[in-house]
Amino acid sequence: MEVIRDIEQYKNVLKSEIENDNLVIFPTETVYGIGANALSSNAVNKIFEVKTRARNNPLIIHLKSVNEIEKCAIIENKIEKKLIDTFMPGPITIVLKKKDCIPDSVTAGLDTVGVRVPINSIANRFLEIVDVPIAAPSANISSRPSGTKVSDIKKEFDDKVNYIIDGGESKIGLESTVVKVINNIPTILRPGFITKEMIEKVVGSCNVSPHVLKEVDSSSKVESPGMLYRHYAPSTKCLLIYSKDINLLKQEIKKHLTNKTIILGSNNLKDINCYKFINYGNSLESISHNLFSLLRLCDSYKADLIIIEGVDKVGLGLAIMNRLIRTSNFNYIEL
Ligand code: AMP
Ligand code: MG
Question: Which of 35, 41, 113, 189 lies at a CB distance of 3.0 to 4.6 Å from 134, suitable for a disulfide?
Fold first, then answer.
């Protein structure tokens, strides 16, 4: 895999890679994406193969500007329009009725498509250069933490993808908020940096899918198939513990310590005696930024348990807990 640091120098290479149905990994403000021409089933199939992604988990398409949306999808109501006008470009995906040009392989046979216009300038330039919609999931093998750093991604895809565009560490670090307007109410299918509270301010109300914090059994109907799968997980076993009361939290953590436990949490926990303490940040923004890369780092210590400190499920905290609950495979204690 070659790392591209100056996108202008590689303009023609990138254009021809995408024209030839090859994959290109590119940065966005949320996480890195592994992208292919969304108009080519052949190219899109390669994403599923390389990631070992379940075929019924649809892909998000990335567009160079808001003006491109109506080439691929139909904006059916005022709420969708308002969400687009307010939050795009930005870290949000809106699920809209799809147009025929988007192949079924992108949408896993659904009649809707997730549309996103990133705000990261390198992503925007890449989308402008290739000048086609780019289908892109997060740059990680399925079930693993999403890629937010070139060095992490290179380890996973080195011999499988020709080019990665280096944009430094992903600013936000968690994937986009996925929203679908259902019966005229925006419903968050996957929480992210654009929060329920921010959406409510603009359109009055906003629901959160019950699957965001719950285990989904594969026979139930889900609006967001991505919630069905084991996700964001390091190889080491994880236990997620949350309490508003810091003393209660510490007591509970101590009950579960093994000889080789890593504690991944805020500085509140740094004095607990354990195999390794890793500070994940002391604000929701820094936890979100650091999380996926630190989960990979945790694996490198060959511990037998990672105890992760949970956060309050409001604002960006909802997105963090949505990921952490899956990271820990629903091994979760709340006191
Ligand atoms: P990733 O590609 O890893 O960022 O995951 C994309 C997320 O968006 C998954 O949770 C998908 O289920 C969800 N998604 C993409 N397209 C749609 C759609 N048309 N309807 C509902 N959810 C979608
Ligand atoms: Mg993903």
Answer: 35
190 CB within 6 A, ligand 1: yes
Q: Whose CA is nearest to atom 12 of ligand 1?
A: 226
Q: Find the mean pLDDT for residues 83-105.
A: 98
CA dist 132 and 62 (Å) reads: 9
260 band by pLDDT with thresholds 50, 70 and 90: very high
Q: What is the DSSP string of 76-140?
A: -SHHHHHHHHHH-SSSEEEEEEEPTTS-HHHHTT-SEEEEE----HHHHHHHHHH-S-EE--BSS
Contact 231, 146 (CB under 8 A): no
Q: What's the pLDDT tens digit per position in 239-251?
A: 999 999 999 999 9
pTM: 0.96
175 C-beta closer than 6 A to ligand 1: yes
With a 6 Å cutoff on the Cβ, whether 112 touches ligand 1 is: yes
Nearest-CA residue for atom 19 of ligand 1: 113
